[in-house]
Amino acid sequence: MGRIQRLPSDLANQIAAGEVVERPASVVKELVENALDAEAGRVKVELDRGGVELVRVSDDGLGMDPDDALLSLERHATSKIRGKDDLFSLSTFGFRGEALPSIASVARVRLVTRPRGASEGTEVLIDGGCPAQVRPAGAAEGTSVEVRDLFFNVPARRKFLKSTGTEAAHVTEAVLVAALARPDVSFFLTRDGRSVRQWLRMATRRDRAAQVFEGERLEACVGERGPMRVEAHLGAPERARAGAVALHLLVNGRPVRERQLARAVAQAYGSVLEAGRYPIGVVYVDLPAAQVDVNVHPQKAEVRFADARPLFDAVTRELHAALARAFSLPALGASPRAWSVPRAAPAVDPAPARFVAEAMAGAPGDPWQLDPDSDPATQKSLAERTSVGAPAREPPGGPALFEGTGFYASLEFLAQVKAMYLVCAGPDGLYVLDQHAAAERVTFHRLRRAFASRTVTTQRLLIAEVVELLPTDVATLEERAADVAALGIELRAVGPNAVAVHAVPMLLARARPERIVRDLVAELGRAARRPFGDAADLVLATMACHGSVRAGDVLSREEATMLLRALDDVDFAGHCPHGRPVVTRIGYEELDRRVGR
Question: Which residues are registered as beta bridge partners of 250?
Answer without folding.
Answer: 255, 284
